[in-house]
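Quick one:
INPUT:
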């Protein structure tokens, strides 16, 4: 049984208050032992076990859990540079741009789509993301949605069926018919390849009744609900997600007091996942993370990596924006991007550095995790271990 000792850690974020100080469970002068892809020991470097096969010296730098990106859209083809350029020149963002990517994705081969997903997963890994969720939603036919999920499943266990991203162009005059397709033949083809079901409950996409039908149908097939909610306007999405026991309500930009209260009351079941890359890339109002945190909601931070409204795979970038623009402290932002993301995926084996957890670790070329917000845009990830294997 091979083991690795990572020692000389100047500051370790464990996300386990029993191991260290504060909600981040911070330990100074720490060490970690990894065996068979799991954390076998955590504690002071001076007390670390001697019997290890490999030793890695962190040389006083910080170690954090791998980022858990619980919201991304990586199965796509094509490019929307012109749309972004136009938007930055004054055109407003709407949900309709998704159809541009749908056309390109349908025309792409399986090999092209697979290569794209692999590229973005590697890109995210280099920036410290060790768990990433991936949605379909750019095919919008039975065949194209099913193949998107098959391709996503080659790269992650966290696969989400999002046939209800927007109404397919062929059904522009028959949205009810498209909901029937999404909850019928498309669901039949897609459910075996997914863990989650999602819907874009928003103006220009699906209303509350349509979203409820999609999520209930998915749940009946064993898929756990998630929901795109309240991104562009106030609406029924957040409270519908809470009502149906969704693992997360994502975006949460335009919230009423009742929405905030609902998320706070459901803090143990429904995570408010905030996606600041979308607001950055659309010049929209940022979510008010402070309001949610002060109310007692559980908050996650994710990239929403997609070609139209948030073309970033960088969780460190999202942390910096959340601290600067959304009222989060550096500690809260890091927790939300690690343990918060794990909660949004209902995972207890990732997002923390504790005995028994998966050995997903990120070494920062910095003395503290605070540098993720303090030095925005700087490539601080010096090494990444995914399930105990050095990957970067």
């Amino acid at each position: 049984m091979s083991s690795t000792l990572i020692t000389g850690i100047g500051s370790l974020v464990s996300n386990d208050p029993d191991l260290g100080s504060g909600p981040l469970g911070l330990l100074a002068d720490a060490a970690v032992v990894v065996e068979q892809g799991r954390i076998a020991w955590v504690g002071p470097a001076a007390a670390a076990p001697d019997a290890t096969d490999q030793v890695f010296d962190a040389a006083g730098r910080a170690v954090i859990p791998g980022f858990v990106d619980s919201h991304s859209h990586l199965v796509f083809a094509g490019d929307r540079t012109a749309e972004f350029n136009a938007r930055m020149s004054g055109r407003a963002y709407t949900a309709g741009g998704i159809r541009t990517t749908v056309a390109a994705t349908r025309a792409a081969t399986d090999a092209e789509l697979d290569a794209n997903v692999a590229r973005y997963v590697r890109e995210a890994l280099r920036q410290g993301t060790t768990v990433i969720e991936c949605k379909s939603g750019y095919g919008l036919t039975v065949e194209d949605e099913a193949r998107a999920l098959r391709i996503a499943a080659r790269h992650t266990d966290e696969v989400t069926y999002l046939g209800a991203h927007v109404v397919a162009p062929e059904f522009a005059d028959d949205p009810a018919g498209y909901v029937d397709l999404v909850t019928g033949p498309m669901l039949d083809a897609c459910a075996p390849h997914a863990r989650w079901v999602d819907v874009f409950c928003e103006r220009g996409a699906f209303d509350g009744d349509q979203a409820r039908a999609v999520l209930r149908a998915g749940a009946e097939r064993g898929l756990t609900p998630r929901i795109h909610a309240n991104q562009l306007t106030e609406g029924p999405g957040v409270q519908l997600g809470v009502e149906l026991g969704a693992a997360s309500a994502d975006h949460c930009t335009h919230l009423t007091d009742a929405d905030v209260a609902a998320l706070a009351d459901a803090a143990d079941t429904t995570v408010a996942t905030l996606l600041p890359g979308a607001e950055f890339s659309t010049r929209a109002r940022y979510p008010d993370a402070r309001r949610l945190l002060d109310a007692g909601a559980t908050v996650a931070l994710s990239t929403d990596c997609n070609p139209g409204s948030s073309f970033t795979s960088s969780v460190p970038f999202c942390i910096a924006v959340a601290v600067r623009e959304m009222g989060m402290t550096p500690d809260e932002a890091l927790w939300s991007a690690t343990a918060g993301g794990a909660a949004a995926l209902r995972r207890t084996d990732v997002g923390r550095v504790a005995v028994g957890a998966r050995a997903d670790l990120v070494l920062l070329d910095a003395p503290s995790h605070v540098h993720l917000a303090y030095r925005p845009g700087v490539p601080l990830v010096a090494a990444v271990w995914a399930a105990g294997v050095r990957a970067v």
